[in-house]
Amino acid sequence: MPKEDKYILSVIICCYNSMEFIDKTINSLKNLDPNNIEVLLINDGSTDDTKEKLISYSDRKNFKIFDQENKGLAESRNI
To answer: What are the DSSP E strand ranges found in 18-77?
Structure first.
């Protein structure tokens, strides 16, 4: 395979009231190469502080934060 070919892994994390678990989930990804992975964090209308916690990760270049009204897991994945 030529060197210029690069695979990117997209990890989709759908969150609904996940404040107490989200750090552990995201920290499990921290040792992966940020040039080969993108992390899509979707807040699905959480009523706790999950949205604010996700925003705290927005400074990482490979993390993308999405916010929506509660629509359920299937709709969150479709984003």
So the answer is: 37-44, 63-68
Predicted confidence pLDDT, tens digits, the chain (79 residues): 344 446 588 999 999 999 999 999 998 887 888 888 889 999 999 999 999 999 998 888 889 999 999 999 888 888 8
How, if at all, do strands 37-44 and 9-15 pair?
A: parallel
The residues near 58 (Cβ < 8 Å, ≥ 6 apart) are 65
Q: For the chain, how long is the longest CA-to-CA vector?
A: 47
Could you give the CA distance from residue 71 to residue 57 in angstroms, rounded to a whole number? Answer: 23
Q: 35: buried, middle or exposed (CB in 10 Å: 19+, 13-18, 0-12)?
A: exposed
